[in-house]
Amino acid sequence: MATPTRADTLLEAKSLTVPGLHLQTVTARIGDDMAGGLHIQLHAGQMDLPAMGWRRLGLTLDGDLQRDAELRWIFDGSIRLAGGQGGALGNSHVRVLLSDAANTLQVVLTQGKTQVSAALPLDQPTHAQLRLKNLPLGWLQGLLSTMWSGHVSGGQLDADLALDVRGAGIQSSGDFTLSNAGFDTPAGTLAGQGVNGNGQFNLDSTEGPSQIDLDASLHGGQLLLGSIYAELPNQTTQLGLHATAQHGAFELSRLHVNDADALQLDGALAFDAKGNLQKLKLNRIHAIFPAAYQRYGKAWASTLGLHVANIKGQLTGSIDLRPDGLRGFAFTTDGLDVTDADGRLAVDGLHGGLDWSAQGDRPATRLAWRSLKFYRVLNGAAQSNWQSRNGTLSLLQPVEVPVLQGQLRIGELEWNPAAAKGQRLETSLALTGIDMATFSRAMGWPAFPGTLGGAVPSLRWVDDRFELQGGLSASVFGGFVDITRLSLQQPFSPSPVLSGDLHLQKLDLASITSVFDFGSMTGPLDGQVSDLRLVDWNPVAFKASLLAGSGGRISQRAVNNLTAVGGGGSGGLAAGLQGAVLKLFKTFGYKRIGLNCTLQGSVCQMSGLGENGDGYTILEGSGLPRLQVIGHQAQVDWPTLVRRLRDAINGNAPEIR
Asked: From CA 648, how far away is CA 625, in angstroms rounded?
């Protein structure tokens, strides 16, 4: 018997173009499949499908072509794309059915769990009805790259849609379901992770910028839209948008979000090609707390240095933010309670609102509260009236706030919220009758009597710091402490920086030592603390000089504590008698006491009334027995010095190390 022979036909072409598709370096081999049909092998060194963003991909098609009893052509085989993003059609089974009678071309592609079904009319091959099942979103990276600069990082898509290829663009619409979708942008300001949802879409990339309409129901996942970071709930969140994309830039001219028990908003967003925010204009925001903060507000509040421990109530407002800064905002609330987790701010019963615009005038508003706590200091109920004119938000009349059994009066106040640098705010303050015992208890100090008052004719917010002109004066311990050159830098950050100078006049040592339990001392105390600098309310630098220069009496315990603080010992008669005489006296006379400390970093440079051999004199005695306290440690570790003072105040014997 003769063996059948098989003669293949080889076709080659440099290029082949059909609507929407261009092939280069094409080789086609056609032969007998030994079953009454044809075996076809086609390879293209380069395939371009611009509408899908597929360029310079390798294409290999291998399968059998047969005609069935109904005179339909059926192709069954494999298709492989080389270089397809996300592994698109890297090794897929393909089945094609062509029916002249039905004027239809049907294509089914299968790769693992992924299936793509398409039906095309033969007289309009640029139109297709598609069904997608378990399609990796990475397969659409090429298509998305034609419209924006983002990158798909995961997820799957099911969809039923219509698709029309028109030139280098497409028109498409249909229903979809997303599972575990993820994406990001080069600037990291537009991103998503683990997003699930379903809805309808419409896409048109045929003329000019691509136009996208989306109405979806989202269920879980995280979204980042500029400064808005959302942790979506498992229950339905409605998302509607109209987007325009061109050359990587992305604008949401319509944005609608409805999370029923947390947040509703309507507005617009825009990003440049690198993903940087160009516009955030939310015309309506309605937030219900605490859900709105938990799901949408944490990241934005953190950029302001706020970490909220508790927030209750509702708020309605708007915001207009551009690349050059804030252009407008407004809010109203009928009751809002906020507590900062760091203990720096707490507002109870906030009601009313503010309305500000960078241009023109806005209606006057009223803002009030039942109580306001700022850095441990509790302020009472107050009411303020505001109006925005030409970018400046001003108090219409002074505000009087009860505080620490006294009163804070805020005079003229002008705030420019749009100022990114330079002067942002200026006001004047007056304090009267502030009870120092109440204040010291609020700060966690031993309570001591006295009052604080003073005037600050000018308080300015410049760049990131508050500067106070004028000063405050505290009447304490029978004398005065004057506070000048005050400034507070980064007040809402985790590490605010406070600086200023203190001048002490005729403080009564008997009153001071009775409050702080240092051991009794009498006489007036003068001094100054200049270039004081506190970081997160802890001293990091100062120059302190304390002098009791008019003489007085000092107890044995105070002598011991003073000696330990200076890291020294007693001299003169006390040393000669080895302390035997000291035990006969409860108090001693002194002529002068002086102690200086310059803190730099974590080391305090110590000195006293003058040098004395290898040390420095802290106390000069008066009368008999004649007492002298010498300090021998010129440099003391600051934490060690603080520990010595704490031990002395708490009645423990300070250790010298």
From this structure: 24
Helix pair 638-649, 556-565: axis angle to 10 deg: 170
Q: What residue type is 326 in one-letter code?
A: L
Give the separation between CA 285 and CA 301, rounded to whole angstroms: 16
> pLDDT confidence of 200, banded at 50, 70, 90?
very high
Q: Report d(CA 575, CA 570) in Å as an integer.
A: 6
User: Between 536 and 59, where is the model more confident?
Assistant: 59
Sign of CA dihedral 402, 408, 411, 414: negative
Say if 470 falls within a structural domain.
no
Q: Which domain holds residue 120?
A: 11-125
What is the rounded distance in angstroms from the CA atom of residue 248 to the CA atom of residue 42? Answer: 35
Q: Is the pLDDT of residue 2 over 50?
A: no
In a domain, 30, yes or no: yes
pLDDT, tens digit, 9 for 90 and up, residues 432-451? 888 888 888 877 777 778 88
Distances (CA, A) of 42 to 28, 78, 125: 4, 11, 20
Q: How many angstroms separate the CA atoms of 185 and 176, rounded?
A: 23
The residue assigned the tokens 């063996």 is: 3
Is-above-0.85 flag for pTM? no
**In this structure, are residues 571 and 563 in contact, taking their beta carbons and an 8 Å threshold?**
no
Look at 366 and 626; give whichever has higher pLDDT: 366
Of 320, 383, 375, whose CA–CA distance to 352 is shortest? 383
| Two tokens, residue 646 | 């704490």
What residue ranges in 325-464 does DSSP mark as E strands?
A: 325-340, 345-357, 365-369, 371-374, 377-379, 382-389, 392-395, 399-403, 406-415, 423-435, 450-462
CA 219 from centroid of its chain's CA atoms: 24
* For the chain, counts of helices (H) and of strands (E): 8, 44
The three-state secondary structure class of 266 is strand
Joined together, the tokens standing for residue 35 give 């079953």
Nearest residue to 500 via CA among 469, 478, 463: 469
The answer to whether 299 and 227 are in contact (CB under 8 A) is: yes
Angstrom distance (rounded) from CA 306 to CA 59: 55
How does pLDDT run across 464-474, given as a tens digit for each residue? 778 877 778 88
53-59-62 Cα angle (round to 5): 140
Distance CA 349, CA 346 (A): 10
pLDDT tens digits, one per residue of 553-564: 998 888 888 887
In angstroms, rounded to a whole number, what is the distance separating the alpha carbons of residues 49 and 168?
Answer: 8
509 inside domain: no
Query: Exposure string (b/e) for 359-369, b if CB count within 10 Å is 16 or more?
Result: eeebeebebeb
User: What is the Cα–Cα distance from 604 to 637, expressed in whole angstroms?
Assistant: 6
Residue 109 included in any domain: yes
Over residues 93-97, mean pLDDT = 96
- Overall domain count for the chain: 1
pLDDT tens-digit profile of 146-157?
777 778 999 999
Does 121 sit behind a cis peptide bond, omega within 30 degrees of 0 on the bond before it? no
Complete DSSP assignment for 197-223: EEEEEEEE-SSSSEEEEEEEEE-SEEE
| pLDDT (mean) for 334-350 | 88
Query: Which residues have a Cβ under 8 Å from the Cβ of 543 and sit 6 or more positions away?
Result: 529, 530, 531, 596, 597, 598, 599
Closest CA to 286 of 338, 216, 334: 334
Residue 25 CB partners (closer than 8 Å, separation 6+): 14, 15, 44, 45, 46
End-to-end CA distance of the chain: 112
What is the 8-class DSSP label of residue 91?
A: S
Structure tokens at 298: 């944490």
Q: Is residue 247 classed as helix, strand or coil in its secondary structure?
A: coil
